[in-house]
Write a structure and sequence with these properties.
Length: 185
């Protein structure tokens, strides 16, 4: 009996503090959401930068202003990697520019944090960006790292071609063909 009386006192105190919870009354915070029938996806997603329909390109507001096309053949992390690398190479992102956090960029793009983290890891492996612990992620001196990695890859290829018995002209023709296939004519 004592337990029951205490419970009723707590409920009464709750109703005095939150009167909109009483039966028959409503409040803006308590209104039910509209029901959407089967096959109706509901209203468009609300992301920073305005409403965006599902499975469409996202155009976030922010310093990077990246666009990720969820319908493209390339996975989203590869699109992020390509666009940040291109902007760093082109000088649009200067050396030392601070990039958004993984979570911040993921929220801007409407993607999972792991997707952005994968792109950042690939960019870091390529030498385009560097992570400075808790200070954040910054654009690295990409030219130096890219030149060094390119020279290492060329040396490894030359040694492998020599072990395979290719002469200089055959090895060079293979490189030229690979470059044409990659970059186009």
């Amino acid at each position: 009996m004592i337990f029951m009386r205490r419970t009723l006192e707590v409920i009464g105190a709750h109703r005095r503090r939150f009167p909109h919870n009483r039966p028959g009354q409503s409040d803006a915070y308590c209104r039910p959401l509209p029901h959407h029938g089967p096959g109706d996806p509901g209203p468009p997603l609300a992301l920073p930068g305005g409403p965006v329909t599902r499975n469409a390109s996202h155009r976030p507001d922010g310093p990077l202003d990246l666009v990720v096309d969820t319908e493209a053949a390339d996975p989203p992390y590869e699109q992020i990697r390509e666009r940040i690398a291109a902007r760093a190479r082109g000088g649009e992102l200067p050396v030392g520019a601070k990039l958004p956090t993984v979570r911040g960029l993921a929220q801007q793009l409407g993607l999972a944090a792991n997707t952005v983290a994968k792109a950042y890891r690939a960019l870091e492996a390529d030498g385009v960006i560097e992570t400075r612990g808790r200070n954040g992620t910054f654009v690295a001196a990409a030219g130096d790292a890219a030149q060094r990695e390119s020279a290492d890859a060329a040396l490894a290829y030359a040694r492998r071609a020599q072990r395979l018995g290719l002469d200089h002209d055959e090895a060079l023709a293979a490189v030229v063909a690979a470059l044409r296939a990659t970059y186009g004519d």
